[in-house]
């Protein structure tokens, strides 16, 4: 019997599943016994104390029914199917945790923002919307909420500083607007076994003149992609055609994420800065000293259609066409995700660590008999326009968000649930289930030290100083839902060949500026909303330091690789 069934059975046997209005410590103890055990950063006594606080704080809301929503990933499935029933049994608050598509979550959120109607009492939505939430002020800022209206339902053991993604959910005003509940990065994925094979190493060195290893830059990635595509690996028992790259290119909303999720920053399009480039971010949007968006096109000081952006899109298309399975061009994000684990892909630059759990299943061709993977993950290589001090990739931070339009009592009940599913009591177990780390105490837990060899570098990455260079969309983006949809439509035109990368990006930045202009005219974001620069000769901006950057005469830099084991040592 698995732990989920044990938990449910334990609670049913205590008569707690059928009567949500009844809540006491017996339900909590049954849950801790059946589901948590030693997989917590708290001792058993501390766990029980934390559960007692939830029982006491929830008393005024006992019998209330609330609804919350998130996208469908393993972590949220665990919250919905295991933690929500446990919370109901322990607190007496009946919570329905709906799982829907990511786009649908944003749509519901938008509808609630526009109508003021309370559709859900709590949302898990990406911190990519931080610029939207800060400017529209339609979500409760949690800093003020925890100190004021929500103080009586804010756990003394929440330990807000333990959350590793808090900078992603903090506005320019220093206030925290969302509470992370899952996080995953997009990293470089490669076949560690193929890279360490003596024949492959010798043949690569002979052909390219340097060592096969983790590519530090795009030039090396391209050489490795060329080397493995079509290569005969029968000496390693690999059957079928082999490819040096994996990606996706279908004109679909997920194509937009592939680019707004920091592909441009990996290329080096934006400015230096953590968690995001300033004044120009990875969407190519420039802001002024008041954080007001002032342009997206180069003529207004933006970088969305700059030479670095054109380079980024051109390389992605070229690698998709030359080094990827022919079917990849017609795939979406979710369709492409499982392909590397099928065993015929050498590397993927843009691989979400959310796929880790699905890529370590015992029967996969990319797994060793001892349960360790034949693959590893490492920092993504960066493009020729990238400079030290820039972000080098994307990190998704699905975060609890409380709308202003949600009645106070319902918001309080939802806040209790949000804290329960992110609590130190449950977080280590939740992280083992979904592998989406949110707490430093969880990342450092001894159970992950033990499990690390079977997770292909995930634990090492999250324990390393490198992790701060991966971040979500930042505060330069004033209306994520309106602007995000422009990307897949325009980039899709470049992918299909209907437009050149330059033409597609010219259209994209113009579309973005039309949205910025509408927001400026409407004035709904006040003195932190867009205030567009006058258009100027692009050379004015290209000749200045930082982004937008002038076109380099040579976009093929000297390739650099590093041995994976040396890379890991440098982190320790």
Topology:
Blueprint: H1 3-13, H2 25-36, H3 44-58, E1 65-71, H4 74-91, E2 94-100, H5 102-115, E3 122-126, H6 130-136, H7 142-147, E4 179-190, H8 192-195, H9 198-208, E5 214-215, H10 218-228, H11 253-260, H12 263-267, E6 286-287, E7 293-295, H13 307-323, H14 333-336, E8 347-352, H15 356-359, E9 376-378, E10 395-401, H16 408-421, H17 424-434, H18 440-443, H19 446-451, H20 458-463, H21 480-496, H22 501-522, H23 538-542, E11 561-562, H24 564-571
Parallel strand pairs: 1-2, 1-3
Antiparallel strand pairs: 3-10, 4-8, 4-9, 4-10, 5-11, 6-7
Helix pairs in contact: 1-2, 1-4, 2-3, 4-17, 11-21, 21-22
Description:
It is a single chain. The chain is of the alpha+beta class and 572 residues long. It has a domain at 3-177 and 398-466: Periplasmic binding protein-like II (D-Maltodextrin-Binding Protein, domain 2, 3-Layer(aba) Sandwich), CATH 3.40.190. It is built from 24 helices and eleven strands. It has helices at residues 3-13, 25-36, 44-58, 74-91, 102-115, 130-136, 142-147, 192-195, 198-208, 218-228, 253-260, 263-267, 307-323, 333-336, 356-359, 408-421, 424-434, 440-443, 446-451, 458-463, 480-496, 501-522, 538-542, 564-571; strands spanning 65-71, 94-100, 122-126, 179-190, 214-215, 286-287, 293-295, 347-352, 376-378, 395-401, 561-562. The strands form three sheets. Strands 1, 2, 3, 4, 8, 9 and 10 form a seven-stranded mixed beta sheet that branches. Strand 6 and strand 7 (293-295) form a beta hairpin. Helix 1 (3-13) packs antiparallel against helix 2 (25-36) and helix 4 packs antiparallel against helix 17. The radius of gyration is 24 Å and the shape is globular. It starts with a helix and ends with a helix. Residues 1-10 and 12-22 have low confidence and may be disordered.
């Amino acid at each position: 019997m698995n732990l989920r069934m044990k938990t449910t059975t334990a609670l049913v046997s205590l008569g707690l599943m059928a009567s949500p209005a009844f809540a006491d410590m017996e339900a909590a103890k049954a849950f801790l016994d059946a589901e948590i055990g030693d997989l917590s950063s708290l001792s058993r006594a501390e766990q029980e104390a934390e559960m007692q606080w939830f029982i006491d704080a929830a008393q005024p809301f006992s019998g209330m029914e609330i609804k919350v929503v998130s996208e469908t990933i393993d972590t949220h499935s665990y919250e919905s199917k295991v933690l929500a029933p446990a919370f109901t049994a322990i607190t007496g608050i009946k919570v329905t945790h709906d799982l829907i598509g990511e786009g649908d979550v944003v749509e519901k959120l938008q509808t609630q923002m526009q109508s003021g109607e309370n559709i859900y009492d709590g949302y898990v939505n990406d911190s990519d919307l931080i610029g939207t939430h800060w400017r529209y002020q339609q979500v409760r800022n949690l800093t003020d909420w925890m100190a004021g209206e929500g103080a009586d339902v804010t756990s003394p053991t929440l330990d807000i500083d333990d959350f590793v993604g808090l900078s992603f959910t903090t506005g320019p005003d220093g206030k925290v607007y969302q509470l992370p509940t899952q996080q995953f990065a997009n990293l470089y994925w490669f076949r560690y076994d193929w890279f360490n094979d003596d024949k492959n190493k010798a043949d690569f060195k002979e052909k390219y003149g340097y060592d096969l290893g983790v590519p530090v830059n795009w030039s090396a990635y391209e050489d490795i992609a060329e080397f493995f595509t079509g290569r005969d690996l029968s000496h390693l028992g690999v059957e079928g055609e082999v490819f040096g790259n994996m990606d996706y290119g279908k004109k679909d909303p997920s194509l937009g994420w592939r680019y707004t999720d920091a592909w441009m920053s990996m290329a080096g399009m934006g400015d230096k800065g953590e968690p995001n480039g300033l004044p120009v971010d990875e969407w190519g949007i420039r802001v002024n000293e008041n954080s007001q968006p002032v342009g997206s096109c180069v003529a207004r000081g933006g970088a969305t259609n700059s030479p670095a952006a054109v380079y980024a899109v051109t390389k992605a298309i070229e690698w998709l066409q030359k080094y990827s399975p022919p079917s990849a061009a017609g795939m979406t994000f979710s369709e492409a995700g499982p392909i590397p684990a099928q065993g015929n892909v050498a590397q993927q630059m843009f691989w979400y660590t959310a796929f880790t759990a699905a890529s370590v299943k015992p029967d996969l061709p990319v797994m060793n008999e001892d349960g360790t993977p034949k693959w590893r993950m490492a920092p993504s290589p960066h493009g020729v326009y990238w400079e030290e001090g820039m972000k080098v990739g994307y990190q998704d931070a699905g975060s609890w968000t409380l709308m202003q339009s949600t009645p106070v009592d319902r918001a309080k009940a939802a806040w209790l649930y949000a804290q329960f599913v992110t609590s130190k009591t449950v977080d280590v177990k939740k992280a083992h289930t979904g592998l989406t780390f949110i707490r430093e105490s969880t990342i450092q837990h001894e159970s992950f030290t033990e499990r690390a060899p079977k997770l292909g570098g995930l634990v090492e990455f999250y324990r390393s100083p490198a992790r701060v260079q991966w971040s979500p969309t930042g505060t330069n983006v004033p209306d994520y839902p309106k602007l995000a949809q422009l990307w897949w439509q325009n980039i899709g035109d470049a992918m299909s060949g209907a437009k050149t990368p330059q033409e597609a990006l010219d259209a994209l930045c113009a579309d973005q500026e039309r949205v910025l202009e509408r927001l400026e005219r409407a004035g709904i974001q006040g003195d932190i909303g867009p205030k567009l620069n006058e258009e100027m000769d692009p050379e004015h901006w290209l000749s200045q330091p930082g982004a937008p950057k002038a076109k380099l005469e040579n976009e093929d830099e000297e390739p650099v690789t590093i041995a994976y084991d040396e890379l890991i040592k440098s982190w320790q």
